[in-house]
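User: Last request for today: this protein with acetamide, please.
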Amino acid sequence: MSMRLAAAIFGATLIFTQGIPLRAQRAGSTVSIIPRPASLVPRAGRFTLTPRTVIWVDRGTATLGRQLAGYLDPATGFDLTVRTAGTPAGNRIVLRLDPALARLGDEGYLLDVRPGVVSIRAPKAAGVFYGMQSLRQLLPVEIFREAHVTGVNWTAPALRIEDSPRFAWRGMHLDVARHFMPKEFVKKFIDLLALHKMNIFHWHLTEDQGWRIAINKYPRLTQVGAWRKETVVGPNVRDSSQRVFDGKRHGGFYTQDDVREIVAYAKARFVNVVPEIEMPGHAQAAISAYPELGNTGTQIGVRTFWGVSEHILNPENKTVAFMQGVLGEVLTLFPSRFIHIGGDEAVKTQWKSSPRAQERIRELGLKDEHELQSWFIRQIDTYLTQQGRRLIGWDEILEGGLAPNATVMSWRGIEGGLAAARAGHDVVMAPNTAVYFDYYQSLDKATEPLAIGGFIPLDSVYAYEPVPAELEPQFVKHILGAQGQLWTEYMPNGKHVEYMAFPRVSALAEVLWTAKNARDFGEFRARLETHLRRLDVLDVNYRPVRP
Ligand code: ACM
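Assistant: Here's the final one, the structure of the complex with acetamide:
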């Protein structure tokens, strides 16, 4: 039986076990795990965490054991012992890698809670980590406090959970270029992804409005490109005479040490960081730092308003080499197999009017500007493939012919995803019709903070199905999963990002983890009530859910 089928079957039984009163609930608690586990069978009684509870680990789970103690110690005030040697006995939590559970896959786990004993077993460390996340969500919500909470009974209902995800790519994107987000917020965001068993953080690092990652070989990218002199106020308007600016310098960037710190922080939470370096479009900040990368030879500034810049990298070999130089440093910082190179919204007006770009089209034997973009992306694809990595880009990379090893991120609806999957390429679904979390959460825009447009409420996120119905079965394997987008033109800080992200991320997490036929919005809403109290404790500025 395939994992997916197993999840579907176990999932179906779950409809009757979660969200309705369990025996355990008589003791005053409900099981409200998000995302919903594949299978959950209640048992009699409860497990009680005490100051004498011992976390028993083996060599493969020692780090996880310390991490679990770190999760549990602050709120309980217990200083839990983590022990490797000896035979587990007494009140205990046992963490074990168990190759016999290979059927659960790279991220699945088995969580068994009985009076006196919790056992988390998984074939891989990621699974043990996800079992720990479920255990945290079985305890009272106060467990998420970072200081001692008195008067709480630290108990969890006895049960058996067998769980594994539906999709391998369970992601969130964050644009830190339109507005710079400090390192502390990025870490908080990663923590929240891990809580939701999401495993990809797509870090959008470069834009027309700012370049946010230090590159030693090209210091001006951040000396110049990380700063804009001011920012437009209010909604984007095409008529430049109507734009009003705030007159405040805005910017910031991550040093390579910052990046290493964030990547390590994410790795410890089983989150892979996929960096995005935009090319050939969305490159105005880079061109303002190094005008020789552009087509006009003029000195421009970092863009101070929204919309898409027509400043695009020129198609010279030395510009491709420059971007490969950037990526060379990026690869030393990010172990991710996937490296995102943007590729979206590369406006072709400058290439159309530049005699040199037109000459390049002829020189390279290409048909038009779309093929010129594909030529550019192919040079990068070859480079990344030689380095043992995989290129991923927005769906425009299909337009002049797809690079041989490229993975496509489908954002303009699902068409790009369908075309790429049918051509045998892997796909990540990120459609602006379903998972753009910069869109409004209400039709009543007057009661919401200014957003870019659109309307994507919580229930439609929950109803999203990443595998398009029209995709032929033989290509379904190319849908790696999906991710939500947070473009930050109208999100000036982390609190605003939280408002737009949550609880839509909670809904998306369930779409990506839980079997399709085990999803039920009404039942999710019931669990979400408890989950929002967790987010309260974690100081997440989520949008209140209104009936
Ligand atoms: C995009 O929204 N331009 C990928």
